[in-house]
Specification:
Blueprint (H helix, E strand, L loop, with lengths): L2 E9 L3 H8 L2 H13 L3 E6 L7 E6 L2 E6 L7 E10 L3 H10 L7 E6 L3 H14 L1
Antiparallel strand pairs: 1-5, 1-6, 2-5, 3-4
């Protein structure tokens, strides 16, 4: 089955809002367990706050390391799910189940299957 990456975005919270969101932890745990039991959950994780990010760029052979996220946005990337779903519709149904969809957003993207590309590359190099 194809894999889909669900990227979880939300606005940054003040302490009161953060406590309210933390109170939803049982809902998240129940959702995680249901995805695991269905055999859909490949991986998931929660990220540290955006101010802990480090961005790396290489330009003209020079590496530039910058503290902070790549871009300033109203919503920050806070976590992810990697699901093994039959199709995009199934991935979208599960994205809508995530509590963060009520106050933030969930970006759903198919993950490229690189195995076919790698096999083609290997076959081409073996012919030489």
């Amino acid at each position: 089955m194809p894999e889909y990456m669900l990227l979880l975005y939300s606005p940054e919270f003040d302490p009161a809002e953060a406590a309210e969101r933390e109170a939803e932890l049982p809902v998240w745990m129940e959702l995680n367990e249901s995805l695991r039991e269905a055999g859909l959950l490949v991986a998931n994780g929660r990220l540290h706050p955006a101010d802990s990010a480090t961005t790396v760029r290489v330009r003209d052979g020079e590496t530039e390391v910058t503290d902070g996220p790549f871009a300033t946005t109203k919503e920050i990337l806070g976590g992810y799910y990697l699901l093994d779903c039959s199709d995009l519709d199934e991935a979208l149904r599960h994205a809508a189940r995530l509590p963060i969809a009520r106050f933030g957003s969930v970006e759903v993207r198919p993950v490229m299957d690189l195995s076919a590309m790698q096999a083609s590359y290997q076959a081409a190099t073996e012919e030489k």
